[in-house]
Input
Amino acid sequence: MARLGILLSGRGSNFIAIADHIASGKLKAEIAIVISNRGDAPGIEVARQRGLHAVVIPSKGLTREAHDAQIIAALQSAKVDLICLAGYMRLLSPAFVRAFPQRIINIHPSLLPAFPGLEAQKQALEYGAKITGCTVHFVDEDLDHGPIILQRAVQVLDEDDVSSLSARILHEEHLAYSEAIAMVINGDCEIRGRCVKKSPRQR
Ligand code: GRF
Output
């Protein structure tokens, strides 16, 4: 069974959706560790309540490299197969990315490469996009940039504000993340250049 490491900094609704998909048997994986850089993240409290191995590794007073070294050590000792960033609000150092080649994935609330970075839903609204959505992608050394595993589209409505649009995107995120995790851990896809393609046996 694939062992997941989840990194989060806040609410943790994507983590909870993954945990729910595992609990219902829809996603065949186990959560080996949940790590937060913030002790007050609601997501880490939920992880504790669910009896998962939940660890807070604060970044205060540490360089990015020193903080990442602690996270890498925790993930390695939990023997994770795949790392899922789920609202983890820190940039990963190159050493972190290199420690887990093609083993770190992220979810972003836009159709990348449109609207990378913070407040992607607000960016989409202000730009006047008619379609936005969410993207699950492999993490490389650039922000919101690595090979795309899957995307789900969401229509932008004239009456949308950030909150209504974010809620509809989040609904799709909760489905997309577990679907993408299953594709990766089951070997259903492979990275070719910056593209993710179905594995030969899936075609
Ligand atoms: C989500 O919108 C995700 O796409 C982005 O950060 C947000 C995290 O939300 N990376 P949650 O903590 O999973 O509820």
The chain has two domains: 1-100, 105-203. The chain has a mean pLDDT of 97. The pocket of 5-O-phosphono-beta-D-ribofuranosylamine is lined by residues 8, 10-14, 43, 86-87, 107-109, 170, 173 (CB under 6 Å). Strands lie at 2-8, 29-36, 54-56, 82-85, 104-108, 131-138, 148-155, 189-192, 195-198.
